[in-house]
Every structure is written in C-alpha cells, then in structure tokens.
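re: ur question from the group chat, yeah i did fold both. here u go
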Amino acid sequence: MIQSLLIANRGEIACRVIRTARRLGIRTVAVYSDADARALHVRLADAAVHIGGSPARESYLVGEKIIAAARQAGAEAIHPGYGFLSENAEFAQAVIDAGLVWVGPKPASITAMGLKDAAKKLMAEAGVPVTPGYMGENQDPAFLGKEAGKIGYPVLIKAVAGGGGKGMRLVEKAADFADALASCRREAAASFGNDHVLIEKYIQRPRHIEVQVFGDAHGNIVHLFERDCSLQRRHQKVIEEAPAPGMDEATRAELCAAAVRAAKAVDYVGAGTIEFIADASEGLRADRIWFMEMNTRLQVEHPVTEEITGVDLVEWQLRVASGEPLPRRQDELAIDGWAMEARLYAEDPAKGFLPSIGTLELLQFGEAPGGRIDTGVFQGAEVSPFYDPMIAKVIAHGADRDAAIARLGQMLAGSAVWPVRTNASFLVKALAHPDFAAGDVDTGLIGRDGEAMAAAPEPSPAALSAAADRLVAASPSPGFRLNAPAVARAHFLLDGEPVAIDLAGPGHAQAAAAALVTEAGQAWQLTPWRKDGSHAGPGGDGAILAPMPGKVIAVEVIKGDVVTKGQKLLTLEAMKMEHTLTAPFDGVVAELNATPGAQVQVEALLVRIEESAE
C-alpha cells in the first residue's frame, strides 16, 4: 500500500481524499495557493506545501510545482482529485517519469478519451452506440454551419476538449449558429487551450445517465451501476442520484455492459465514468441511449455510488494504484436503497446565479438519518473569487427514492449560511417540483421551470416574528423603542427592504443591532428601521456595476447609444464563466467605463444608462 500521498487539488475533494487516506494510515500532503493558506484541506493534511499565487494558473495548474512539492514533502504518490490537472495526460506522464505513483488511469487512456470526437470514433469501433453528429477535422465556420443543417436543428456545439459544461452551446436555429460557434470557441480556448468543436444532434427530451466503472492493473473491470444526473442548469449538474429512476433490470444490464466495453477499449485502470445521453420520450430504452463521453477521473457525484454500494471509491483508487486487484468482483456488487446529492454553491439564484464571495460568518448544515456532508470549508472561512464556489455536497441515503428526497430536503432546509448567499432554497424547490418527485426528469426541466425555483424566497410570518422577538429582546440599541401593550407591529429592514412585523411578545424592549432569520435553507438579516435608508434595486438608477472581480471580454455598445430594456451591454468573464450584463430599462448610454480586456473590481461602475428625454 502507498505510504504517503500528495493531493494535487483543493476544497472538498482534497478533504475527501485526506479522510480516506487517514483511515488507511497513509500520510497526506496538501498543496495550497495564497488564497488557500487557511483552507480546511491544509489544516487536515499531515503536511502542506505552498505552490504559488491565488489564480489557479499560478498554482494548481502548474504541474512542475506540484511534482516539486511532492519531492520536497517526501510523498510517494499523487492523487489529482477532479478538475485542474486530473485529466491532463502530460501531467500524469510527468508524475510517472518523476518516479512517483499516479493515482489515476494510464496517460494513454486519458488521451484516448480526452478528445470527444476521437473518443466517439473509438467507442463506435468498440460496439458502443454513439449519437449522430459531425466529429471531423474541418473547422471552417461555413462548413460547420452546413453540417449542422444536415444533422438538423436543434444541435449542440461542444468543445472537443471540453468538460464540466464549459465550451458547450445549444443552437436552435441556423441564424444563431455563427454567434454560438464564436462564443463556444472563445470559451473553449480560454478554458482548455483548444478551440476545436464537434456538433451533435440535440436530443429533445434528454436524460443524462452515467455508469461508474473501475479497472485494475490485472485486467479486471467492473461497473458499480448507474447514476442519473439529468437535473441540470446550463449543462451543469444540480442534483444527482443513484440508481436512475425508471431503469429496469434489462436496460441496466445492457447499459452497464456497454460501459464496461468502453472501459476495456482503452485498457482502463482506476475510477472512471462513462456518460450516456438517453432519449426519454418513451421511457428508458437501451436502443435510445448513446455514448456521450468518458471522464477519466473520480466524479464530483461519486458519493451517491458509494452510498448505494457500500464502497469507498477513493480507497479503491489507492489500492489499485498500489498494484492490488479490485476489492470486489462484479457478482459481489449490488444496489442497496437510493442516494441523492445536491451541490450547495455560494451563488445567488435570484441574481442569475452570480457567485457570492466573502467570509462564512455563519455555516450550518442540516442533519437527517443517512445524511452525509462533504465540504472543504468551515465557519469563518473565505469563499474567494478564484475557484469554483462550492460550499458542500449534501448527500442523503434512504431505503427508496422518496425517503432519499425527504432526507435531502430536510438537510438542505436545515442549512443556514451568512452573509454569503447560497442556492439552498433553489435546491429545496427543485426537490419539491412535481416532475422531479415523480422521477420524470430531463435536462431541460430547470430551463422550463427554473425561474420560479430561482425567485428570491420570503421568510414566513412565523419566522419573521420569532426573529423580531429575538431582536427586541436582545441588548438595547439607543433610539429604537417599541411600545405596545400586548401584540405590537414594528417596522424593520429585511435585507435592506422595509417590512412590518407583528411581534408575539409585549415589545417594550429596545432593539439590538441585527438578527438573522433562517428558514428553508435561506438566511436574511433583520435590522431596525432607519428612515433615511435608500434601497433601490440593482441597476434601478441606471448604474451597471461589476457583480464580482473579472475581465471584460466584450463590449456591445458605445457612449450615446440608444438601448432597450434587456439589451446586452457587455460580457464579463469571472469565476470561470461568462456573465452578460444588460440594460435595466430603455435609455441612452450616458457613461461607459469598460473596454475589452480590462480587469475590473467588484462594484466598479461599468456602464450608466439614463432614461431618454421625452
């Protein structure tokens, strides 16, 4: 068995690997950037090595620094986690060439599955069904447009080196193809250093189903059944579950057998995932499920597979990397119950899911039987603008799907985070959606009904009254006194907006400075009323501010332009995503402080719109 392990990652996955390694008696080494000096994974590891600046390109994406850190700390092996360099064949080979153990698949397997077009050709040769599309070398925009027309709209443009929802665009009509292609290529070049794309037929009622596979160096390959990741927002997974609802045993057997064939085609060693797309218009049928791609690493959603199989997949990774055979044969693996995972992010659904950064002054996770929290943060930690804003993976296991939903909902509703905003209430609403509850899910569900899920929630009168009672019963604050004989109605500010609340108590006490209202996974700040408060909404005065630090990548207007409400003004690249800023009302561009390529700080004034004179 490996004796010492460096984890070439950060956040919850680094903490997850450390937890298993510690149980196995393996010494762990963390690496960290400037921004992560106080991070949880650094605290948990036996040793830690600083590898550079806060941007990932200066630290976590620099393979030479990571290998040097392993040598410095005396680590025997490197585990890449997911993201960053986990699917970089050159890094994997460099680790091996340095005389270290690579906890992952062979570099050749990563290369074979790394480009979507080549992978699909390989899968077709191995007898694995693939979706119709164009995967050729001709990248001329006019030619690609013609191919899209042949395939038939809608089509999906995908970066051949893409992943995680990056470098992907849905195009519903020919007139939109050129712009979508340019945007996709720009994002692909920035994220992967490769702007080549492929085109696929877009399945109208798609479900995203993937199979966990595992191989060892002795030629053994097994599957650990399927996961359903169909609940997605803009191609990024929101809630994952295992097994897949509506999957019968015959379809499961055929799907999992195809996944094993795919893994064998690349002589696969370690943990991997074969991703399929299913046309669910007539339920799940083996003849309507096609190969999409292979992820040659551990997936974010691997805990749901662990929960239904009783397997620690990280332990399997470490044992296989140590040269051991797989711990179980295929006939020793079975499904036990149902598991679900929700990704709790520091983001504000009511503001277009903009990432929310800052100090986690309050961090509370709900509890339920069969519950599990995988996190890389702690109360008092910082959510920085440099990395993926995940706070935790919230996982629930139950005897059946209904039990898993109920337990996951209980855990999310019991969560409270402040002042950083989260998507907890969005997740609670998603679980309660009638189609999701019935297992009738496709990847377009949030696109159709997500506006209601994302709407800013309001606390119940009972929650407000209880918080107001706590507020007025706390230490006094001069100048604010409530006077009522029994039940009082008092005025407060709820997240800066005026609100009148009926108090249950007599209300003779003076109010403290603030109180938090927590309910259904959401938190609000309640403060005494200040008559001079001004609370215009974002953009209400025509000022368009940068929602976070980022880079201006496109400016669509010039000073003096007449614009209409909702018109695109500029595009900001931040937190690895493109964010479009639009006009809040009809008017004229009175001020423009943004130029392509400029770096801007949070709340910098980018554009100011003035209403047109009558």
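okk and heres the other one u asked abt
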Amino acid sequence: MRFSFILFTLSILVLTILFKVNADEYDDITKQLNDLKHSLESSQKATATNEKELVKLNTQFNDIKNKVAYLEGEIVKKEREVKEGEKALVYQKKLLDQRAISYYKNLNKSSMGVMEILVSEDLTQALQNFFYQKTLQDEDRRTITKIVLYIKNLEGKKTSLEIETNRLTIIKQEVDKQSKFLSGEVSKSKTYESKLQQQIAQLSARQKEILAQKLSSLGIPQSAYTTKGGCVDDREVDPGFSPRIAFFTFGVPNRVGLNQYGAKGRAEAGQNAEQILKSYYNAEYTAGYSTGGNIHVVGTNEYGQSFDDNWNIEEYLKHLYEMPTNWASEALKAQAIAARSYALAYTNNGQNSICPSQQCQVVKREENSDSWKNAVNDTAGIVMTNGGQPIKAWFSSTHGGYVFSSGDIGWSGTAWTKNARDTTGDVSNFSDLLSNAFDKASPWFYCDWGSRAEYNKTAWLKSDEVADIVNVLLLAKMDSSTQNHLSQIDKPNPDGTDTWDKDRVKSELRSRGKTPFNSISDISIDWDRGTGKTTSVNLSGDGGSVNFSGSEFKNFFNLRAPASIQIVGPLFNVEKK
C-alpha cells in the first residue's frame, strides 16, 4: 500500500545520513463494520483503511519527525564545530607558515656534514647544536602534519555537512507533505466513522422500536399485583412435534430495585422489611422523614379511572395496588417503604405530579385492603434515602434471581441501585438458580414467552425454525443491508418492504459463500453467574458450528421468531426435547 512504500522510502533516506528508523509494527486493519459493510462499500473505497491504522501510521511519521529533529540538532552541532574550526584555522594557517619557515631553517642548520662536527673546536657543543636542530626539525614536521590533517578533516566535515543538510531538507519536505496527506486521511476516516455510527444508531433505534412493539404485545407484568399477561412453563407440554427447542427467560426485563417476589421469599425466610430493602438498594433506611407536602395524582389508570387529586403521602399509599395483599407482612412493609420513597422522589417531595398507572405506580379510587393499609401505617415516615433525599425506589415483579443496577439496563446510572445475586446460596448452574432464587415462586420466574395456538399454545420451535433464525443472524452479520428483509415471516414487514422466507435467506447466504443451516442438532448456553447475563449461545447442525453473543442472538431471535415468541430478559436458557 502507498503508506508502506512512503515509510520504506523515508527509512532509506534517513539511513543514508547514519540514522535508522525503527518503524513500529502495525496491524493492517481492513475489516469494515460488519453490519454496514456492503451498503457503504461503493462510496467508501477511498477510506477503506480505518482510523486506527491511520493513527498508527501517524505515530510512525511522528517518530520520523522526532528523529529528523534529532538530526537537525546534530547538524547544528556540526555547524558550530565547523565555525569554530574555521576560526581556529586562521591561527593554524599562521602557525603553519611559521612552522614551515622554521622547518626549512632548521633543515639547513641540521644538514651540516659529519666532518664539520668532527673538526669543530668544541665537539660537545657542536653535537648539542646538531641534535637540537634535529629536534626542532622533527617538531616542526609533526606540527605541519597535524595542521594539514586538521585542515583536511575540517574540509571533510564541511563537505559532509553540506550533503547531510541537503538530504535532510528533502526528508523534511517529504515528511511534511505526507503528514499533511495523512491528516486529510484521518479527517476522512473520522467522517466515515461518524457516518457508520449514525447508521448503526438508526438501525439500533429501529430494532429497539420493533422489539418494543413486540414485547408490548406480551403483556409483561410490571408488578406482582397484576394477573394480566405472563408466560407459561411449557417444559411438560407437548406441542405435537419432536425434536423441539424453546428459550426460557429468567424473570422480566426491568430487574432494578425491589424484587417483589424476592421480597416475598425473603419475608417467608424470616427477613424483616429493613433487611429486605437493603438487599435491593444501596440506601439508608430512614425513619421520621418529613412528608409535609401533598401528592398530586393526575391521569388515568389501567382500570379506566381518572384522577386529578391531592393526597398526603400516607393517604396516597393506601390507594396503591402493586403487591398481593395476602403476602407476608414484612414483604408488604418493604413494598410500602419503596413506594413511599419512589413517590416522594418522583414528585420532588410533592412539587410535581405523578400518574396513577404502571408508568409510575398503580393507584385506584378505592383504598386497598386492611393488611396493606396496616403495612402503610406501620411504616409511616420511613423512606429509603441517599444523601438525605428519598430515592426513586424502582421495583418489578420478578428479577429471575439477579438484581441489576439502573445503568445495567440502559437507564441513567444511580448510586442507590445495585447488581447482586438474589439467592439463598451459591449458584454454579441453572439448577442451583431454579432451586435457590428468592423469587423462584413467581409464575414469571422461568418460562418461555409467547405461544402458537396450532402447537398446543406453546412456544416450542422446530429445529428448522431455529436454523432459520441462525441463518438470519449470519446473513445480517455478513451484510447489514439485508436486515430490513429479515423480520418475522408471519407478520407484515415493519419497514414496508418484502420479508425473505427461509429459502431466500439460505440462497442469499450461499451467494455470499456461506453454508446455511437446514437444521440445528445441538445448542448450549454460557452465562455469567456473577451478574446474571447470558454471554453466548453455541449452536451446531448440518451447517457446522457457530456461536453468538447472548445479546445479539436475543435481538435477532426476537425480530425473526414466529407469532409472539420472545426472549424478554438478559438471562435465558434453552430447553430441548
């Protein structure tokens, strides 16, 4: 590629001036974002190299620039040496002239013959003069030689300096040119990434919209009080075919705060309201909280009752319907405190209004039963607080053995919610979770959501139906532009286009060099025992073996699965018969 050639050329140039560029090794990242690869391929060829590679190249260029700067410093030193040498040269030339004259004088003096020495009246003095002149002659010769070598060395330095300066100028020009080009490529890459992120966000939003519509049709219970909606444990129900596969979810989606069936299990195990609440919130159990303002209730509840009423907080709570009132009193007290805290936080201590439906908290015109009102009275003035203020104490019917923080499910992060296992002991497998979870008695604890009347009102799937879901996921990952064709077959396409059936999906996979599945023979689930999330789904069949993350499998399962069949939470398992 062009960048590699440029770096190689620059390295050779730098090597010629006694300095080697040790360029960093870098990964050739060419993988496009899978879910947008083909739809953007034609318009993004010029920016196929992604930003990460460009950053690495920029690092290499910066390394070269740093070494060029080092060379410039060395050249400056040499220039100083040459200038100092030239100053010294003036003196050395004068010295050379003097030494040359002295040398020739001494040469003549030392050239007297042996007979002149022998006939000399003072032989000793004559010999001393001879050797003295000889010494002066040798010293002059050595000095002349040093000066000549000095001049030669200085001329060599000047020549080398001129060559290095010229070569360095070429390198600086080339580095500057390529750095400007690189900056432009980085800018293009960022623009490209921005477009990808925007399209991914749009796709994600559309998927969430479709999934929300499907989930809303299931009537998932928000509180333990309701008898509407729900799921059925189909493990012992025969749909009329075999082999069969079903995906079972633990709990309902919003696992934040108080687990109502968990509170029931904890109360039955002997825990009091304070112990129960501290199991679900990182908050203070505060008694005697001042609740002087009224709660303004505005709106319509699920029972068709309209409200525009002002009640004090304790009166408001007596109209609340969120938990079966025949449960243990400590569970009812825990619910009353959570509801009181939520209402005060939601309304900012009565300054704002609250709705009477499950979007907020369900209230009715009539007061609840005596057991519930006793729980309200027994906990009057008690709230869960954080920093001295009531917390928005969320709750839901069934957590499925795990508590999530608000940030874990995509809400704003809060200091008073937590992620924790909600069991009586350790959990090493799904059997332990089914046996030890405090909310195991909930009808929504472990079940497959949705059904088909033609298969005995169950959510069991055939092997080829699961294979189709796998093929859809494989195709969507290979080519994101196909996704609006991959919704469930038995419903109108939510994007207003044609929906590809299982045979068309197989054909599309083959055209892209991928062997599709006709049947699935084995499935296994990996999950995080600490946080309560399915981490991967591993499948094998006649198309080979594949694995997907838990979240991506769930999303495409919910988009493609027939009828109302859904996986509704982050922790799910597979059942096969």
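fwiw on the second one: The chain has three domains: 2-208, 217-250+447-576, 258-426. The longest strand covers residues 520-528. idk if thats what u expected
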